[in-house]
From TrEMBL:
The chain crosses the membrane at residues 20-40. Pfam families: N_methyl. Keywords: Membrane, Transmembrane, Transmembrane helix. This is Prepilin-type N-terminal cleavage/methylation domain-containing protein. It comes from Desulfotomaculum nigrificans (strain DSM 14880 / VKM B-2319 / CO-1-SRB) (Desulfotomaculum carboxydivorans).
Length: 130
């Protein structure tokens, strides 16, 4: 009987329970890391879409500012030929501060984000008349 005890004590290895516990812990860690990676990827995609919308809005604003403005303009809509999924509207109105007259220029770019329609970026600036 003593020989059997010595024989079992010299054996090395893991029991089935130890293997199952280790596998469970490893699986939980892998799932947590995967969740962080997926969330980061979605956030990156969202930031990219918003960055594109901001750049398009700035470009449209610069295009309007480069033109000579002689009168207010009602809302006008359009799309960007090279950027499907992005649309814009803009309008120009009179704006007075004390004795100074300006044109108020409003530009809004709309875009779809993760299947949700019509997220937007809005820019506003003033241009001195004359």
């Amino acid at each position: 009987m003593a020989a059997n005890l010595v024989k079992h004590q010299n054996q090395h290895g893991l029991t089935l329970v130890e293997v199952l516990v280790a596998t469970t812990i490893l699986s939980m860690v892998v799932l947590a890391v995967a969740n962080v990676l997926i969330t980061g990827r979605l956030a990156n995609y969202s930031a990219k879409q918003k960055s594109v919308a901001i750049n398009l809005a700035q470009g449209k604003m610069e295009e309007i500012l480069a033109q000579e403005i002689t009168s207010p303009q009602p809302p006008q809509a359009g799309s960007f030929n090279d950027m499907p999924g992005y649309k814009y509207t803009y309008y120009i109105e009179d704006y007075k501060i004390d004795a100074n007259s300006f044109w108020a220029i409003h530009v809004t770019v709309y875009y779809d984000h993760n299947g949700k329609p019509q997220n937007e970026v809005y820019l506003f600036t003033l241009k001195r008349k004359g």
